[in-house]
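Margin note from the TA: students keep mixing up input and output lines. Inputs are the sequences; the output is the structure of the whole complex. Example:
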Amino acid sequence: MEDAQIVDLYWARSENAVSETATKYGKYCYAIAFHILSDEQDADESVNDTWLDAWNTMPPHRPSILSTFLGKITRRLSIDRWRERTAEKRGGGEIALALDELVDCVPSENSVEREIEAEELGSIINRFILQMPSQERRIFICRYWYLDSIKSIAQQFDISESKVKMILHRQRNKLKQHLAKEGHFDEQ
Amino acid sequence: MNNETILDAIGMIDDDAIYDAKAWQSESEQEKSGRWIDRKFGVLMLAAVLMLALGTIVYAIATNAFQSFFEQKGSLTPEQVQYLEEKTVGIGQSVTVNDYTVTMEAALCDDWDLYLKVRVVAPEGVTLDFPNEEDGWCFFESESYHSSAVDPSDVCYGMRGGGWRPLEDGDDKENTATIVFCEQTVGGDHPFTDGEVWNVTLRNLMISRQDPEKAKYIYDDLLQAEGEWHFAFPLTPMNDTAELIKEPVAFSAKKGALNGPVEYMDIVITSFELRPFGITCEYRSESVANGAADHFDVTVMMKDGNEIQAQADMGGIGQGSMGAQGYMNYNFNAPLLLDDVAYVILQNGRDEFRLSCLSEYSPTEPGTGEEAVAP
């Protein structure tokens, strides 16, 4: 079923909306949730919560890209769920690795930092990402938005894992420089 | 601000960009899968070839240094094999640091693309060579290189789009490994120039391998041997280039998703340089939206009727006072013999454009490849 038709089902408050969504985007959302949570049951629950959230937001929302709309909900809910776990139970998974990597972009303790609203930071990062060459942008998004593993990214882009790591390493450094340039902390 | 704040902020990025990242993957998944099979098959065949080649003279090993590397990506024609043999520079310099001997075996380049073949020998008992790439591989943490013809304090290349790939060496020894460094350095300031001596420094030998205590596909990079291995050698770049743009050409580059909402950005191509290992397309645009300069597909049509698809690689765009200027890079899975190229087709999903190797061009009817009738 076409995305526009699925969205129409939500707007018509048809119960088929959820089943059609699950059929078409269940695997997609599950993959996002599982990369973050590394737990089948938690991932299933996040995906089910995604359908509920979608039901509650359409209408009034009419997403232009349904997959991304659902993926964003899944990602947010899964990260929230991941945070709800105690520190001991957070476990590994790609999110832990991605967070370790993103430390590269964070100012050191001695730097001059000012509080920044999440939305403003999102806007800055958005500008940074949109300036990237296409392949670098896709790799960055696969790693830090979809939380895909290095291995998976290497296979998808048909490049070596070492190249993926090097590209990401450079991107993190550039992001740190970009944040410094935007005046959010002193580059060390 | 902490790393979780950044992760949250990344969650807010542009919908089109998120969609594009996966749409591109889904579209190419089947093709990639086929290529993986081809590559595995190629590796097996090459391993057999290398085993048979053991014991032959060193010269033969040097001149065929990169054949097996390229054949991982597909078969080569006899002409391409001969071309590689003619252009490969056998080096054979060895440097030992902290009991690790690194040999710069061979180099190959055109004006802007560089390949280095390196052999590493570790002390007995150390594992550098893993049965499969999935199990692990070794690489150098960083590289730098500069020409002795320029002031190294002014120009010292870092990597751009470079990476290490393991290569089957067929010696069945765990403490040895052969790796190939590939660099697409377009956008730098100084091309690889014939006759100049290049100083190359490899720093810190690393091992990337899966930790059995961690989840599948999670790799750790471990410092295997600290040190710097310095080499100096001349390069013989393949200076064959073909500039296909005689006068600026107006075209459209696709931006955004490949198989979803597609937008087009008007560009003026000012240069389209074809080289044995890559293409650099320079352009300018007055209508950069979202700062995203994306791409179009490039197909090289050979005189024998074969088609070679160029792989989009690193590109970039920079804003200038006269509008946006940028470039797109492409590379090939095998050397391109420029004399055998008939013409090049640019496709953006809506329009096609044909670039002749005689620095002439003619528009083609969308989807047909036939020459368009002038309005």
